[in-house]
Amino acid sequence: MIIKKIIIENFRSFYGENIIEFNDGLNIFIGDNGDGKTTFFEALKWLFDTAIKNKSEENRNLDLISEKRISEMFESNKVRVAMFFEHDGEKRVEKSFCFKVNNDKQIETSDFEFKGTENRGSEKIPIDGKVLLDDCFEMSIRKYCLFKGEDDLNIFNNFDGLNFLIETFSNVKQFDIYYSIKDDESFTNFAEKKSDKAFATAMQRDGKNKTKEETLRLGIESLKRELNELKDNLKKSEKNATDYSKKIKEFENSRGLSESLNDCNDRLEKLRNDKKREEKLIDENYSIKLLDERWILYHFPNIFKKFQNKISVFSKERRRLEKEEDIRKGKEKGKKEMIEKIKNNKSIALPHHIPSEIIMQEMLEDEICKVCGRDAPKGSAAYSFMQEKVNKSKEIKKKEIKKEEKDFFQNNFVKELEKKYNQLEYESAIVNNLKNTISKCIENNENQKNKVKEIEEKIEKTETNKKNILSQSNNLGEKKLVNIYENLTQWYDSKSTYEKKNDDIKKEIEKKSSELDELEKEYGMLSENSTAEIPKKIHDVFADIKKAFKNAKEKNTQDFLEELEKQSNVYLERINVDHFRGILKIIRGIGNKTKIELQDSNNKIITSPNQALNTTMYMSVLFAVSDLTSLKRENDYPLIFDAPTSSFSSKKESDFFNIISSIKKQCVIFTKSFLNENGEIDNDKIERQKCTIYRMRKKRPFDHLDLSTVQTELKRIK
Length: 718
Fold this sequence. Notes:
The longest helix is centred in the first third of the chain and has 44 residues, at 210-253. The protein has a six-stranded antiparallel sheet. A six-stranded mixed sheet has the order 8-11-12-3-13-14, with helices on both faces. It has helices spanning 37-48, 55-58, 67-71, 129-136, 139-142, 161-169, 187-205, 210-253, 255-280, 286-292, 301-343, 357-366, 381-402, 413-426, 428-432, 434-471, 478-482, 484-525, 533-575, 611-633, 650-662, 683-687, and strands at residues 2-11, 14-21, 26-30, 77-86, 90-101, 107-120, 123-128, 146-148, 583-588, 594-599, 639-642, 667-671, 692-698, 712-716. With 718 residues, the protein is α/β, with parallel strands linked by helices.
């Protein structure tokens, strides 16, 4: 089957009718994230789905309708995906349905169709689309056609993957009527079982060795039961080991994502702590600083100078007034003293406080004048004089106490101003440096805010990176992805436990099988020269026939695997030119459980090949399977990949596309390769390709918040 043309109409972002021509080789569709690559892939997947649609399933089609068409719709429209292809002649298959807005302004769908046509001469014969597609492109084959991402490429992830390949593409299925591992489903199983029963019956009827026959027969039956039980246990244990292997593989594929997520979370925690620390260093309490740190004085140097001058004037004026008042008081005091001298006539009396009141009191008590040394008894003129002087001194003191004069300046405002003046004069250097202080503070705040902004940008980028990591995690969830190592450790232990159990069971099966062989051999020897000899020979013949068919089927299977492995290595070599590739091995286990691994030339297993090598390994097997299909069925089919090379380096990616374009096989690849960092086409890389290339992108302009404005455009650029 070769795709010639695809028509996509009103399918999600594919607004209106979009016609895409294909060639027989490599077809590349280039688009950035969100440009419609996956939508195109899903349109093909929807077309190839031949499952019967019922009424309830039609409602799911609402998700397929173009939002842009809905936004401008006035009448019924159609969603349609059609494919024109060659397969023993020209054919066409189309899936579609109609949609419209009902009276309740709800979208409803109708007229679902899946139809096809086949060209027969000049006639186009209508055929049911499901029948036509299943006939030309069997559902069993389709699972080896569409692959989304790199993890989807390993076809042996499915437990029955190898069995399907063997039965579909090799000649082994023709042996099923003669030999099958399932009882009663093949002639040899049936014949062996019947001949065994006839032999056992003949042995029981022969009374020659009845006791020994019964002992051996019971022993054989017991061993067979034990072996069947062991095989059942082995099957369950192997399934458990396989399940854990799948889980481990799933998580191993996410190991890099887990490491990246943990790194992101660590960076986010550090960045958020850095942001808090830097934010604390921002001091923008400017209103408080105006007063508490006297920033308000920044624009008032002249006023401050005037303030100093006024304080000086006030201080001088106060001192002048205080001096005048002191002079006035001094004059009054002198005047009083002169008046007192005049009253004393001839001589100027001593002040009232000379001698002191205490001395005068002492002289009165001693009745002697200690000034002139004469006696002054009580009643004498001298005693009366001293008594009068003491009384006068006391009287004057009383008058002075009553007559306390008030200060000339009742308040200390000028002194307080002088004090403030002295303080400001002392701090004048600080005031004069306010300009630098304020500038540095503002500059520091701006620098800190810039640092915070840079940290916020880093936080935003890291959070975006984190979202991208989580989007690639196959919906594992952040918590599960963070705890991935704990899960892996537990699963490795469980896998190891079951693998050890498998080995123990296999050893026990081998031991029991050996015991069974001995008993059956001994049991067979009893039939010699007895009535059971002929049934024994018949049983042996059927057992040999069964063994022959088993060996033939096994050889046919092994031949198929060897051919698949050989062809896979041819492609592996072609895809990995100038790169290490190793040797691809298809390892077959019990029950055709299979895995693909790489070995070097020394048979050493390459346990952790890089993702790019893994991808080319799986793709090589896919190409080989496709070749075997062509040989077996005389018809090829296309391989369709969505983002299969996301882990490739730029050079390896370029080499890969060059090699794929030279392979005679139709491949359709959706990729964002060939785009530079700005999302523009890298023309140099395009020129080196020899294939059909389409550019996919969103039509400009569009509203980033309105899905109904998004439309995918396709342009053939080569």
